[in-house]
Write a structure and sequence with these properties.
alpha+beta, Phosphorylase Kinase, domain 1, Transferase(Phosphotransferase), domain 1, six-stranded antiparallel sheet, 63% helix, globular
Amino acid sequence: MSPARWDQIEAVFAAARKLDSRQRLTYMAEACRNDDSLRTQVEALLAADSGATAEISLAAGPSSSLGPGARLGPYQLEALLGEGGMGQVFRARDTRLGRPVAIKVIRAEAAQRPDFRIRFQREAQATAALNHPHICTLYDVGEQDGASYLVMEFVEGQTLASRLREGPLPLDQLLRRAAEISQALAAAHERGIIHRDLKPANLMLTAAGVKVLDFGLAKFAGPQAAADATAAHTILGTPAYMSPEQTRGEDLDPRSDLFSFGSVLYEAATGVRPFRGSSLLDTLREVVSGHPPPPSSLRPELPAGWDAILMRALAKDRDRRYQSAADLFSAFEELRGSVPQTAPRLEEREPDPVFGREKELGKLEELLLSAVQGKGRVVLVSGEPGIGKTALTRMFVYQACKKNSDLIVARGACVEQYGSGEAYLPFLDVLGSMLQSAGRNRVITLLRKHAPTWCLQFPAVFSSGAMDQMLREATGATKDRMVRELGDALAALTTESPVLLLLEDMHWTDPASVDTLRHLAERAHGQRLLLVVTARPEDIERNNPTLKKCYTEMHARGVCEEIALQAMGIKDVAAYLDAQFAPNEFPAELALVIHRKSEGHPLFATGAIQILAERGDIARTNGAWKLEQPLAQMELDVPVSVRSMIEKKVGLLTDAQKQALQYASIEGEVFTSTVLASLLEADELDLEERLDVLGKVHRLIRVESEEDLPDGSVATIYRFTHALYQNFLYDQLLSKRRVLLHRRAGETLERVYADQRARVAVALATHFERGRDFSKAVMFLILAGDTALSRYANSEAVGLFSRGIDLVDKLPENQQAERRAVLLQKRALAQMALGRMKEAGEDYRAMREVCLAAGDLEGECRALIGICHVAQQARDVPSMEQYNPEARALAERIGNQALTAEVDNVWGLYQMVSGELAEAEAAFAKAIHVARSLKHRPAMVVGLTFSGIVEFWHSDYAKAEPIQVEASNLAAEARDGFHLPLALLYLGLTRANRGRISEAMATMQEGLVLAKRNNNAVALSRIPNGIGWVSREMGELGTAIEFNEGCVEVCRRTKAAEAEANALLNLVYDYLLAGELNKSEDALERILPLYERERWNRWRFYGIRHNAAQAEYWLVRRKLDRAEEHARALLANAEQNRVAKYTAVARRLLGEIAAVASDANTAEEELMRSLEPFATHPMPLIEWRNHVALGRLLATRNRPRAARDAFKRAEALVRELAANITDPAPRKTFLEMDAVREVIASAAGG
């Protein structure tokens, strides 16, 4: 729009706004004669100006009579949060659910205005249509005494508008917030909703991310747009953030929001708005024609790509902008991945020199050189406390970085914790340090590609969209997969650069980390990877048998070396004195005396020397360091124990310094400035200056790093230079003071981490237990255990839940039963995940007793369901028979629908494996119906998965497929790694029976990939069977034998008798086709012992599949009596259980047996009857063979026309099957099968 045009619009607008409505109509008709565009623009501005005035008027009017304490329906108002033109926003409490909510109340006077009511209704409609983590959730709408209200999620945080008053956002926050908002907009736009008023005041910053608020001006795009109450050509929104088309009152589409978003981000990056004016018209003119300077000109440190993204978002022509929020999100993600991190590495800070360790440093350098050349390994640096492990390894890492510019270094450390501690702690530390290094972008890329399960542990690093995708990729993950993925990621990283991992204090490590270390050690030999591990041998021997066994194994396999540190020599003490006090005139005897009294122990020796200096016994005189008195006259009070040495060092501190360190010891060997400042009630800046002296002068602590905390603050992380200092200082605290400080530390961490408390759940549990708040201790032990389960660290979870059970007796009596039951149930789940069915059963039985005593019927029912699940996994049919009816009866008595659905599923499983398919079908149908009405997804997944299997076993493939599709989709959404591969297996088998071969193979391969990724033993013992069967039907006999033989081996290792029998049955058919009758007979003989020990699904695998295989085998052997015996048993079982497929197979076998016996009439009758099931149960993969058998018989009976008709029907099915094999190679193999070629030739009359 030209400046002249703007001047014209402004002049008409300024004149019109001064007139009353009648005068304005006359003036507008004259001023805008023959210029409809001018009239539209001015009327839009007048409407906007009128709306703003009305809103201001309402806001200035009397407030609502509502206030804190008032009620709106079930909501108790607690505090006024804000006021606007539309009404007021209150914090309130939902008295039914006990949760905080935000309530937006439209004022009664505003509610009388049609435009306000329409906007209110539109906001409710728009918000209700959205469900996204970065959009404020709508809970309810209501009306009372003429006032309408919206009930929304209560979001704690700070609006972006408020935050920007403090200055622009830091770069990492800017990029993260940009990605989150673009995701929220993408979700809204996908539902056809345009926000139209995106601005900093409508964006709430929380610890969990951005929340987009206020859809009061939202407009529905597409079909609903016509009904939108905001007429076209009306300007609504906030002028500084409008799009150009919005200022012109044009129809809007999602790209308008992208322009507004660009304006918001410009301000967030620079602190100034891109479009500013002294009046509304000036601002709008800037939006339409102004060109703000590039953001980098106002903030040079912005990354190069930032300007390009914003300038495209702010394009005046909407066709030149990003065309979707998803495109904008991708641009931010790409930029975010390219921004380097400039934080200095710990290794760049030169450590204190070490003495007497030249040999050890040389050995470490030799091992690093070998690793750089691709021969990695593990090296254990061992020694007693204070011997110098940390000093040695830090010097080595520093020198290694100086000599190897491309070396990637990462450090992880263990701390003394509950039981086995936090799962994977040192390796989480390792990845955390990598993700803060200069090479973070490479690490992010490789982790994203190779280790999604580890990416999930760092939600702050990845966008919520990426997290959602990785959650799907991690479906069904296990501990083995987590360990393997880290190995894969490090292996990929070492192809680009050599990697050095320093793992400190591993004597305190957890079992999951031991497994990870073992795995990395096994793979290191062919990689540029060196793992340097420090540990105390006596602590490994006494407290960590898992680690002891691991080291023994690694030494035996030659993948680990040990560097055991010894005491310092006299020369080393002298060298230390000369380095610390240069130049000096010390007598030679000084080093000798210190060495003798300290026995060369580095911590003793250096501590004693430092005490002399701090006490003034060593002083600088005339440029040189000297003793203040002759050594012979001086009482050299060298400590005689570690404790006395530390006592003397601490005795030199001021009271304030000593108090700071004592309070710091509450957190452990590692502590944070934030928590310590809270404990001391001190200013954090003053405290850090105090701690700086304690580090540089007294050398009792050192700075480790800085960390962004979830509440937005930045904490400095400190570590005591030795754990012995922390232990001593902690012991000095009075017991009551310790209790108080632990509780306050826990409360501080609770506040700081808010909704991310799972990250520090172990620490919180420790603090609250030691602070004697046992209720909170148990609560956080449960959270810590749940976190361990989410990392597949089941052993650690068992330990944490066990500790919680130990504390239950210390809870108030009214809490004990409920907490004990919860902990027992969770521990039972962890035991099941470890395969400890006996222990899991014991926990569920104990849970039942607790619930019985407390009269908790629902808890008792859950315990019974758990017992049944354990029995199912253990194939314990008697226990299922005993407890299933009890659980079912109790669920019905309680009337809890969710429990009823779970019990029905368990009952259905029992009936299914017992061969009572009608009962199973009814139970699953009932469970699915109830679960669907309750949106009880886990029960739906179970019910649908096994209902699909029952329909498959009935050969009702058309009914089975949609059930299996829904089951697999729901299982994928729920990340159910157990049921998803099972659903995919049976979906693939169903599609194969329906003749869609390639689709079937792709489905089963998907399940197999997932099973292999997660090392899912159940799926790995079954899916290859299905692939083997389809391969044989396609004529790929070698592939079939390979899959089925491999499956037998897997089943033997995992003791899966049922699956092993199934694989052996497949091999019977494979070997028969290959002409290897002896192998076929051997497979049959190997099956029988399996049936003797396995009652599970015996009706199917023995009564049906085994009889079918036996009949085929004896028919080939021409033992017709035995063949007929098994065929008739097969027919009886198939008809009894309504298995149409095997009814057809049995009839075909009986017909072929009669044909060989020269009973042509019986043969024809049976073969004709074998075709009957296909009329109601189409299965072309089976049917064509029955037509072939009939055609062959009719040909021998000298009925060529009837024979040709049978072969033609077979040919049509064969052609249909071939058409559904999309890959040319297997299609060619199928068409070249002898039987297929016979069909084609016979159908043609050959």
